[in-house]
Amino acid sequence: MKILSLATIRKKTTDIARIINAPRDLLPTFGSTRDFGNPHIEVDKKNYHYVVVERGIEWERSTTQNLNELLYWIFNDVTFQMACDYEVKNRVNNQDFRRELFRKQLEFMKNINSDFSKKLEEEIREILKNHPFNDNR
């Protein structure tokens, strides 16, 4: 599988971000870190890397050769933050906040890619198996 350049990945990321009107500051950087828990993308001859650095320490590094997997990681984080922001502004009393958060994140992901939304839906199902909704808190 051919590994694309950082510039190409940046363009693809920016194009997808426009679909959901993602704020620029939620997008990762490319080639270098912004630090403070903000993700960045690295590329080598064989792999794409999704890297999170906090206070100069690498906290997370996910590696793949699959561009769609990388894009899923990027937009899973971006849409989660967007959905959190939306939920806070549209909170429903006596309802588990995750109901609206998950609904909105799935909506964003479906607008990007139906496979992304299906994958996210499965991840949410797993979360809810162990931690079901708890309304009326």
Short synopsis of the structure:
The chain has 137 residues and is an alpha+beta fold.
Q: Your description of this structure?
A:
- With 137 residues, the chain is an alpha+beta fold.
- The protein is 51% helix and 16% strand.
- It has one domain.
- The longest helix has 23 residues.
- The model has no long low-confidence stretch (mean pLDDT 96).
How are the secondary structure elements laid out?
Elements: H1 6-19, E1 29-30, E2 39-43, E3 48-54, E4 57-64, H2 67-89, H3 97-112, H4 114-130
Helix pairs in contact: 2-3, 3-4
Mean of residue pLDDT?
96
Structural class call reads alpha+beta
**Low-confidence spans: pLDDT under 50, at least 5 residues?**
none
What is the rounded Rg? 16 Å
Number of domains: 1
Number of helices: 4
Oligomer: single chain
Distance between the termini: 49 Å
Sheet having the most strands: 4 strands, mixed
Characterize the overall form: globular
List its traits:
137 residues; alpha+beta; 51% helix; four-stranded mixed beta sheet
